[in-house]
Amino acid sequence: MSTETIVKTVTSAVGQLSVQPAQADSTSTVQSEDTYKYQHLLPAFDNNKKYAPLRAFDHVDPGHRALSHPNPISFLGNATRVTEMTPNLGTEVEGVQLLSLSHQERDQLALHVARRGLMVFRNQNDFIDSGIDSYREWGSYFGRLHIHPTSGHPLNAPELHLVYRDAHSTFNFELDDRITTTLWHTDVSYEVQPPGLTTFFLVAQPSTGGDTLFVSTVSVLKSLSAQFVAFLRTLKAVHSGIEQADHSRSGKRGGVVRREPVETLHPVIRKHPVTGEEALYINKQFTKGIVGLKREESDNILNFLYDHVAKNGESQARVHWTPGTVVLWDNRVTAHSAIVDYKESKERRHGVRITPQAERPVSALEA
C-alpha cells in the first residue's frame, strides 16, 4: 500500500479528528498523552484487516483435569483472605498472584471459576503490567483466543478485546436511546463456540462508578418451576451478531467490521461440560428469538426470562473496581453488565478482556 494511505487518529485530549499520512495500512487509533502508562493498550481499528469465518475446533476444558486432584482448591493455599461475595455467586481473593500459578493450579482455577461463576483477585499489578505476550499466554491456556469482529484492540494484538471511554469518546457498544445503560449479556454468544473462562482488568478507572454487575444463570434457572424448566430444555434460540456489526458500520465504535456477523442456534438451557450444572443461556443483547415459536410466544418467554435475570438480586453480585483488580468469570454460567454511571466525571475507563473460546453449547437433553 502506498504512502498516500490515510491514518485517522482520534485525539482524546481535544476530542477532534486529525489526519496524518501513513506508512502502512489504514488504522484508526486513540491518541493519548505521552505520559499515559498504558498507551500501548489503547484501541486501534484496522480499516483493511478482514478475517474469514471462525473454524470449529476441539476444546478441552482445563477444569476437567482438576476434578481428579485430591484438593482442587489448593491453589488458594497462600491466600491471605478468601471471601464468598454472595452464597450463589462470586469469590474474592487476596494474597494469590495469578502469574505465579502452576499449570495444575490453573486447572484448579478453571474448575473453581466454573463452580463459583466469578472470582475477583485483588493486588494483581504484576499480572496487569506483564504485557501483551503474557496476556496471550495466559488466555491460550484456557482455550483458543477469540478475535472480536468489531471492537478495538491494541495495535498488532487482535486477540485482546478493549473497552474504552474518556471525556471525548467511547469505543464501547453503548446505546444512547435507552433509559439505562444496564444491558445483561454473555460475551459474543452469537459465535458457534462462545467463550468459557474469561479474564478482565482495568488499567484506568473513574474515581467512583464504573462497577460491573454479574448474575449466576445457574442460580436464576434453579428458581424456576420444574415444569417450566423442562419445557425450556426443549428449546433453542437464535443468537445474532448483526446488530453489533451494524452499530459499527454506522460509524460508531471505530467503524470497523473485521469478520462478517453470524447467527447461531444455541439451547436455551445449556449444560456445563465440567460441573454438569445447567444454566440459562439467553441474553437481551444477542438473543433474537426462540426457534419454532410464534413471534408473540417467543417474545413473551424471552422478555419474562430477561426480566427474571435483571430482578433476581439473590443471584447477582457487583464488582467494585480498585487498582490492581483482575476478574475472571465463566461465560457459560453467568451474564454481566457494565454500569456507565461516570459520564459526567469525564474520567477514563480503559479495560482489557482476554477471551478464550470454549465448546459449542450443549443442552442437557443432547448430553
UniProtKB/TrEMBL annotation:
<keyword id="KW-0223">Dioxygenase</keyword>
<dbReference type="GO" id="GO:0016706">
    <property type="term" value="F:2-oxoglutarate-dependent dioxygenase activity"/>
</dbReference>
<keyword id="KW-0560">Oxidoreductase</keyword>
<dbReference type="InterPro" id="IPR051323">
    <property type="entry name" value="AtsK-like"/>
</dbReference>
<comment type="similarity">
    <text>Belongs to the TfdA dioxygenase family.</text>
</comment>
<keyword id="KW-0479">Metal-binding</keyword>
<dbReference type="Pfam" id="PF02668">
    <property type="entry name" value="TauD"/>
</dbReference>
<feature type="domain" description="TauD/TfdA-like">
    <location>
        <begin position="82"/>
        <end position="355"/>
    </location>
</feature>
<dbReference type="GO" id="GO:0005737">
    <property type="term" value="C:cytoplasm"/>
</dbReference>
<protein>
    <submittedName>
        <fullName>Alpha-ketoglutarate-dependent sulfonate dioxygenase</fullName>
    </submittedName>
</protein>
<keyword id="KW-0408">Iron</keyword>
<dbReference type="GO" id="GO:0046872">
    <property type="term" value="F:metal ion binding"/>
</dbReference>
<dbReference type="InterPro" id="IPR003819">
    <property type="entry name" value="TauD/TfdA-like"/>
</dbReference>
<dbReference type="InterPro" id="IPR042098">
    <property type="entry name" value="TauD-like_sf"/>
</dbReference>
